[in-house]
Amino acid sequence: MKKRVRLLDLAHARSGDKGDTANVGLIALKPAYYPILVKHVTAARVARHFKGIIRGPVERFELPNLRALNFLLHGALDGGGTISLKTDAQGKVFSTALLRMEIQVSR
Amino acid sequence: MIAPIRIAAAQGFWGDWLEAPYRQVTGGPIDYLMMDYLAEVTMSILQKQKSRDPTLGYATDFVPAMERILPLLAERAFKVTANAGGVNPRACAQAVAQAARKLNLGRKLNIGVVTGDDLLDRLDELLASGHPLQNLDTGRPLSDVRDRVLAANAYLGAAPVVEALRRGADMVITGRVTDTALTLAPIMHAFDWRADAWDLLAAGTVAGHTIECGAQCSGGNCLVDWRRIPDLANVGYPIAEAFPDGSFEITKHPGTGGRITVAGITEQLVYEMGNPTTYITPDCIADFTTIRLRQAGKDRVRFSGISGRPATDKLKVSIAYFYGFKAVGTLVYAWPEAYQKAQAADRILRERLRQLGLQFDAIHTEFLGVDATHGRLARDAARRGDLAEVQLRVGVRAADRAPVERFTREIAPLILNGPPSVTGFAGGRPKPEEIVAYWPALVDARMVRPRVELVEA
After folding, report:
1. What is the Rg, in whole angstroms, of the alpha carbon atoms belonging to chain A?
2. Could you say which of 1.10.1300, 3.30.70, 1.10.287, 3.40.50 is the CATH number of the domain covering A2-106?
3. What ipTM was estimated for this complex?
4. pTM score
């Protein structure tokens, strides 16, 4: 049995910028959720989620000590910093954009 | 057991809460007040101010903030570290010294001034001697934009701040010193840590990273369980209590609002994170995957286990250059069919810009209330909904001012000659803004010579 779960129900997050790259730190709400995030929220899956929103690749790093994953979304900020014309030029709310993602988990 | 030293963060950027420094000083015992003022673009703004008036070029908010707490500083002998000096730390120190003299504090103050980060006058020398200062993101050599450079500053580490403290400074005012060094330096000084004690330096760096954004680790901008974070109106800014073994605890003054938990602290740890095993500063490389966190009490999180590696032989240089111009115009469309009206207005505006033959590097449209923050991930839900209003927000940028200027005159006409139910234009025509862009580069650390001087007040 599989069930669809929104990341909002499994994790919290904070995001920020480095130039034209946004970073999203995704943090498990409970220790038991961390392996689920590691398994399902892959760099490729996140790249698909943000398709059309970012122009570059996605990198993923694991922080098991903090039960967190860190994603770098390259080409996310229309040039970044002062060049960007985006409301979210500093990538502050990519965090909750990632939390919209739905994954299929075993019951 | 040796008592910890208490470093209180009071400013996470230039523009942060003006009340925070005074509350941090009066809310309980502290040993250091740490204030971070410099973002990447701040240096170029300050450089521009200095070119107009040689006595400016620093974070002017810092002076009244100090005026308010100097009597307490003189009495209780806590110290201050701040990178408020911007591109003119000496002028900043002079302004604080002048304020101190007016207050008749009853004792002399020593103000340490850290300079040597400013490379603007040395760029041609560096380029000529084989330091291309390539853009770290694009790989382009600095010669591409050399004639448009407005500011160039190396990120200095903790060493010169430690030296100023060792020489008896009550307050250390720096230029472009890393945010983390402003916290690390007092700890190094207090416990006599060696400059090659990599695990300890990494621990102090993580402490700095945790509190450098002020209340962002003590309940501010915290997503987890945000509704139940108490009394953000009186949020307590964080305090790092550091021990000689490299462990430390993050807490806040009793009776203040906000909340310090493992979950909230973790949000701040991953903020602006790159590769977590390799957090590079001038002082060391910190490994964030070694951090152990534990809730050690109410509003108190304990850090331990942090390991570090030797610093690289390079320093990061933050270069600002003139890029061009931009402008953003907005209009608000009301129910019914608010989104559709805003979309129609955008199509009309773009058609008019096209007919005028204006050349832009980019035209960017957002519909606030629909897709400005989450793009297409949110758009489908908005399309189905019956929105009360949508703000159309169109931005343009170009190398030249003229097309941007012309764009700013194409927004208002839509009020009378575009789609209906439009409002929200009280601010008048948008103004073209100069874009000062950021060029990150590396330079050999041995090419940069930090300097420390003491000013008496």
Report:
1. 14
2. 3.30.70
3. 0.97
4. 0.96
